[in-house]
Design brief:
- The complex is a heterodimer of chains A (about 190) and B (about 290).
- By secondary structure, chain A is α/β, with parallel strands linked by helices.
- Chain A has five helices and twelve strands.
- The model of chain A has no long low-confidence stretch (mean pLDDT about 95).
- In chain B, helix 2 links the parallel strand 2 and strand 3.
- Chain B has an eight-stranded parallel β-sheet with strand order 8-7-6-5-4-3-2-9.
- In chain B, helix 2 packs across helix 12 and helix 7 crosses helix 9.
- The longest helix of chain B is centred in the middle third of the chain and has 19 residues.
- The chains are: A alpha/beta (about 190), B alpha/beta (about 290).
């Protein structure tokens, strides 16, 4: 079986850290900058970065519509800004999001950079907790009925799933622990 | 809860990769920058080319102006303190700016010491001209490194020199054997542990950005080509004839720097870039990059 081909939206943000984890768990990462880059991909990662910047570049690159169509069918792992882009409702973002994930989020709701933090959270049924790094992170303020909670911190949803879409408010790519990527890649193998 | 450790500081720098950080002097410019796709803004009272023209002592900006910019935009807001000015840095931290640039563009407050950045919750970015300088700043706690270039000139030549020095210095470290690393650390004037780490990994432990002299999309693409992971643009935007268009174009060039056909379209019809200064026109005492060590 060949390694799954996983795109990483590479318009702006923490691209290479995701690539490193994907390689570590047996997936083949590919940068996505233009619509043609979506050809022959099995799944895609929407990385962290600045959601306003990425939103604008999604328009100028012509990627918005083709990527949306791709994500309606294929597995998606979205972190931080990626979660914002997937969400149905976002406060204070001057761009339309993909709106595929039935949640509402507040941007930068944990505060400015000096309040960014990391903390252990439960992950699946693992005995070891997962170190979750939150950087000017979004907060999930509403979850639709079809949205499943994967993990929470202090009663707040920080990892959710709806069908083929997984969204995290934190950054699994910033630690050395590849468990999140391994779990997600296992789930996308044909 | 582990708040704002070195990990979160470097984490924000990671999020800025592939982006453009734009100098802005008021809320209106900040809005233009955000709408054009800036990944962050640098709030300062005068852009470097005006600081250069005005002379005198350049200091931290008025907190009122920084607050107005923070209220205007949702992207990270950075601000500059003078080299070694611990109290300006404390004020900027209390303002909750997202990054402090301990910058040679302002007049240094301490000619011997830079700020000990590990003591702060807010992350710092510092300029460098070569690998040794980069590693001294990282040793003091900088979470991001940028080339100094020569700010306010619209001339890319110094940023190129500095980026090549940093990247070349890293490449050299990876080719040395273990027994040569201490001598190289001595030559570089750099902390040995960081030298050793780079010899093993082949890269800086923090993101490596470029600043100082970017005036066109092609300049920004060039810095990406040479290894910059993101680009600061100071005078290049608001000293051009069409700042909004220049800002948008530089944002696109930083993303699509490998796509020459796209760079053609991005570079078309931008109007006048900032006039710019040749290095030979700058008297030695007005050179900014030699501030700090």
């Amino acid at each position: 079986m060949t390694d799954p081909r996983v795109g990483i939206l590479a318009l702006q943000g923490a691209v290479e850290k995701h690539a490193r984890h994907l390689e570590a768990v047996g997936a083949s990462p590919h940068s996505v900058l233009l619509p043609g880059d979506l050809d022959r991909l099995d799944a895609i990662v929407l990385p962290g970065g600045e959601s306003t910047t990425i939103s604008r570049l999604l328009r100028t690159s012509g990627l918005f519509e083709p990527l949306k169509a791709f994500m309606e069918e294929r597995p998606v792992l979205a972190t931080c800004a990626g979660m914002i882009l997937l969400a149905k409702e976002v406060d204070n973002l001057p761009y339309e999001t993909f709106g595929l994930l039935d949640i509402s989020v507040d941007r930068n709701a944990w505060g400015r950079q000096i309040f960014s933090f990391h903390e252990n959270i439960p992950w699946m049924k693992d005995a070891d907790p997962l170190k979750a790094v939150f950087i000017r992170a979004p907060r999930v303020v509403r979850m639709g009925d079809g949205v499943e909670l994967l993990s929470s911190y202090k009663g707040e949803a920080v990892a959710v799933r709806q069908g083929n879409l997984v969204a995290l408010a934190f950054h699994p790519e910033l630690t050395e622990d590849s468990r999140v990527h391994r779990w997600w890649v296992e789930g996308i193998k044909p | 809860m582990n708040v704002s450790t070195f990990e979160e500081k470097v984490g924000l720098a990671e999020m800025l990769k592939g982006g453009v950080i734009m100098d802005v002097t008021n809320a209106e410019q900040a809005k233009i920058a955000e709408d054009a796709g800036a990944a962050a803004v640098m709030a300062l009272e005068r852009i470097p080319s005006d600081i250069r023209a005005d002379g005198g002592i350049a200091r931290m900006s008025d907190p009122k102006m920084i607050k107005e910019i923070q209220a205007q935009v949702s992207i990270p807001v950075m601000a500059k303190c003078r080299i070694g000015h611990i109290s300006e840095a404390r004020i900027l931290e209390a303002l909750e700016v997202d990054f402090i640039d301990e910058s040679e563009v302002l007049t240094p407050a301490d000619e011997a010491n830079h700020v000990w950045k590990h003591d702060f919750k807010v992350p710092f970015v510092c300029g460098c001209r070569d690998l040794g300088e980069a590693l001294r700043r990282i040793g003091e706690g900088a979470a991001m490194i940028r080339t100094k270039g020569e700010a306010g000139t619209g001339n890319i030549v110094e940023a190129v020199r500095h980026m090549r020095a940093v990247v070349g210095g890293i490449r050299r470290l990876t080719q040395l054997d273990a027994g040569e690393l201490m001598a190289e650390a001595k030559n570089l004037g750099a902390p040995f542990e960081i030298v050793k780490q780079i010899a093993e990994t082949g890269k800086l432990p923090v993101p490596n950005f470029s600043a100082g002299g970017v005036a066109t999309p092609a300049d920004a693409a060039l810095m990406r080509e040479l290894g910059a992971e993101a680009v600061f643009v100071g005078s290049g935007i608001f000293k051009s004839s069409d700042p909004e268009l220049m800002a948008k174009s530089i944002v696109e060039a930083v993303t699509h720097w490998q796509d020459a056909d796209r760079l053609v379209r991005i570079s078309e019809g931008l109007g006048q870039a900032m006039r710019g200064l040749d290095m030979a026109e700058i008297p030695e005492e007005q050179v900014l990059q030699t501030r700090g060590w």
